[in-house]
Batch of 3 targets.
Target 1
Amino acid sequence: MKYVICIILHFVCNKINFTGEWQLKKYENGIAIYTRSLENSPYKELKSVVKLQTTLSSVVSILTDWTSYPEWVYRCGESSTLKKTGATDWIHYQTVVAPWPVDSRDFVVRVRLNQDPESKIVKIISESIPDYIPKTEDKVRIREFRASWTLTPINGEVEVVYELMVNPGGYVPAWLINLAVVDGPYETTRNLMDRIKNTKHREAKFPYIKD
């Protein structure tokens, strides 16, 4: 049961208010995982922070390579682009593989990428559009979430911050989710660190990203 909770927490709920300070839950291999409480939700918000010796384009290359997600995102079963609505705007579909007897999940999001021309900070924000395609009978559709990646260049490195929270839908006790919010995001971030070493991503360039 613990493992499905980690990946279900892949995105952040809309319209939520913060009530607590960030609390460090794990620091290992340069990866910091934090959680904090929310006013109108039984679930906790999660933040992961890591610094990578790479370029903004390299990280963007990995994060927008949707079809590769099953190779490195924890318990990702299927990942695909349903529609590309602009150079930095996508409709994305993803499934979450859950162990029996928990039902697997899926979600549909609109993803927007933008870069501040002065600071060069890149933000990638995903917002729920759950009714974009019909739901399937064998999966619970995640309807409420919001996620953000913030990529900040700092002295030749890139600080990667991921913030997320989700209402997974169906029946999964909030206390059980909150017990396991660290493991999945930590493993995903660790895999991201390894993936940066791939030549395909190290040499990536985009017309809309200024390194």
Target 2
Amino acid sequence: MDHGSADLGRLEWRRAWRALRGLIADSGRTDLAIEVIDALAGGSFERVFQKFHADPEGRRLLAERPSLLATLMNRDALQELPAGSFGRAYVDFMQAANLRADGLAEAEAIVVQRHGLRPAPDADHDFFAQRGRDMHDLWHVLTGYGMDEAGEAALLAFNLGQVPSLGIALILGASAVIGPNDLRGSWPRYLFRAWRRGRHAVPLMLVPYERLLAQPLEDVRRLLRIQPAREAHPDGILVGNRSPTTQQWMLAAVR
């Protein structure tokens, strides 16, 4: 994405709205979600990067340059980890959803090709951007939010609690409007709880995930201060999608 553009700081609202309309029509278009976030990044990427760089753990990661994507692409090694471990839970999650670890990298490449964006200004920024992208599915596993439409919205809210992003806020605002609303406002409250859950966790951009994959998943969740799902969402994790024909939501709560 264009983290090194001469237009750094400029908000591309027209491009964001166009991508958002496409995303509303087809929630499976991950490339459009990336485009909304990129169009409204402004100077936020640099601010988040500077916080990362100011932290000793961030500087260690920048110096050592571990490839999170390479680690996550090695399914054979992950499948050999103990049952109940973070890494085994991740690979089981990805196999159940028929996903590849490099799926987001491919979606990002579509956005880059479409807009002819320049690469990040230097190797440090590029490493940081790629690592942030590649940890997305690990956050699915840590939070318990699924790959369905409700799960993706909840993870975006959780993400927003971790990293301020005008683009994510815009997508969430649209989700709150078109979501499965009722007179009690259950859906916006659900998203708020997911945001608060992200806010209370440790800064997850700084986590050395490669060192945690062999540990029990529940231990990792406690270490990262990720509130148990039963406490964050006492009525259960919502799972469901909009009907492509009627746009009505089909939801279920999983405890």
Target 3
Amino acid sequence: MIRTIHAELTKAFTLRSVQVTTAAALVAPPALALASGLAFDPSSPASAALRPVAHGFETAGFGQPLVILLAALIVGGEYLHGSLRTTLLATPQRGRVFGAKLVVIAALALAVGVIATSAAVLLKHAALGEHGLRVSEFTPAMALNLLTVSINYALIALIAASITALARTFIVTLIVLIPLVLGLTISLVSVLPPLKFLPDLAGIQLLTSYAGVGLLDPLPGGLVMAAWAALLVSSASFMFVRRDTGNG
């Protein structure tokens, strides 16, 4: 299994698209946090409403689409280029191959969450100056929020990878998931409350707090999102093992 994981990681990072997407996912939240910190106006109501410990975490949502794209590219690239047959000739154990892909994707998503969010928080508070916190003032709640952002990234990446494997193309994944995480469902949840159980909204408060919108709290929401991920991973694994390697 270790050799298969190493092979999947090597394959993933030979793709320029994966390299660029990973770099963008690492850079986008910190860059946006820095810009937000430099433009901070303490007299505005929106700025006054944001708790000091929340600064930097509000940009985590902008990393989600890139994490989705990263997972979709890693899984969908082999269908697109027809290289999955070669992979399965080298490692005929299909379950091991798919499991290794998921391990690589989840690990990369976790790493992106930790690195990008840590940088975003540090840069935002540095840019805020006297309105921000010193590193020595960072709280355990901020460390927990860093963990929950990373968990959210890993779960949304597993969901994206599973949808890609089921559809055998990353296009379906992007069409289905990207509009959701960019705000389609959160704009409708007040009208259609059951939307809060969709995977994107269920775990959204793992990223940052959305008060007064009627969403699930972080813990139950995270569990619902994890249940979606488990269901889709199981379905994708079943199909990956049993059907042909064509792109549909």
